Amino acid sequence: MEQVRVALQASDPLVQAGLASYLQSRPELTLLRPADRAQAKVLVVCAERLSAEVIALLRRCAAELGAPVVLITNEITETELLTAVECRVVAILPRAAVTADRLAHSVLAAAAGGGVMPPNLVGELLKHIERLQRDVLTPNGLNTSGLTPREIDVLRLMADGLDTSEIAGELSYSERTVKNVIYGVTHRLKLRNRSHAVAYALRSGMI
C-alpha cells in the first residue's frame, strides 16, 4: 500500500510536535518536511480558530498545493465553515477530540476523496445548501448543479446522441434556442465543446 504524503502546519510548536508524533506512528502515512510540502497529498492544519492569518494560509495552500485539508480547531462559525470548505477543507476535527486514530482516519478519508466532519457541522452545511437552493437558485431557475432544467434536458439528449435539430424537435425549441443553450453551458463552465460538456455533466452526476 502506497503511503499517503502529509504536510503539517500548526500554530504552536508543542502542538506541531504532538501531531507529528501521531502522524509518524502510522505506517500508512509519511510526514513530509516543510520544504517538501508541495508533494503533499493531504495537508493537516491546526489552529485555535480561523483567524484572518489562518484563512490566508488556507487560501494560499489551496491555490499552490491543491491538496485536501484536514483542519483541527477549537471553534468555527458557520461563515468560517463555508470559507474553510471553499479552501478545500474536507475534514474538521475538534482539537480536544484528536487522537492518533482519528487523525489518521481523517487523513486517509481526505486522500481517498472523502471527508469527515462532526454532525453539527454537517447540519450547518446542509442548512446553508437549503437556504442557497431556496433563496438564490430556485428563484433563478437553477439547482445545485448550476444548470437550469432546460440545460439539463439539452445535455441529456446530447448524451443520447441527438443532434441540434433532433433536440429542438424533441423539446419543441427552435434550433437557435438549442444552440444558445449549448453555448451558454460551455461558456459558463469553460468547456471546450459539446463532447466536453456531455462528459463533464456525466462525471458530475448532473445527467
User: Can you write the helix and strand succession as a string?
Assistant: EHEEHEHEHHHHHH
Main β sheet profile: 5 strands, parallel
- The CATH first-level class of the largest domain comes to Alpha Beta
Residue runs with pLDDT of under 50 for 5 or more positions: none
Strand order of the largest sheet: 2-1-3-4-5
Secondary structure: helix percent: 40-55%
Shape: elongated
Q: What is the strand content?
A: 5-15%
Q: Please, what is the CATH homologous superfamily of the largest domain?
A: Response regulator
Total individual domains = 2
- CATH architectural name of the largest domain: 3-Layer(aba) Sandwich
The overall pLDDT, averaged over residues, is 87
Number of helices: 9
Ends apart, CA distance between termini: 35 Å
